[in-house]
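Hey,
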Amino acid sequence: MNVLTDNFSTYGKGFLGTVELTVYASILALVLGFVMASFRVAPVGSFRVFGTVWVTVLRNTPLTLLFFAVLLGLPRFGLVLPFKVFAVLALGCYTSAFICEALRSGINTVPKGQGEAARSLGMSFGQTLNNVVLPQAFRSVIPPVGSNLIALAKNSAIAGAFSVTELLGTYKTLNELGYSIIWTFVWIALGYLIITLTISAFFNFLEKRWGVAR
């Protein structure tokens, strides 16, 4: 227990760092995922190609490699930002590919006839998507989107290898101070458990309120 009590501020900074990464990267992932899902079902061919390339490249690229590309590659092109911002970009873009596919699968569950009926009433593609298709698709994609955001929270541990303050990285400091590595990781694991259970509880609430009844 003394590992936690003696180093509560260190754990606290790491915990808050992971929470910040998770929140900001989740927002970015949801926004980009929605945009790419819209592209993938758009009637414009160039949009569909762009969305497909985005998803294919990011889903098949190791996250660690993407971190190297963003944190070490972008500064070479003159884009210099704090490492935490680069970490959010890497996590958000990577997870957006999976969010996109989850949303697209939900969109595909909506009968085509409803979209055709909306267009016959004079609705544009954007109006049909936002007012008819997505409200129905949202109900079926709550569980997979929640699972992807839980995975994002755990993936944020990679950021610690790039000088970003997060929960897993606290073990380096505590190990140098001579604390038990086993108990160090026990408290780190508990911190991640709190974060993931919070996300899970939130999406369980959404599913109970708006999810599709089975």
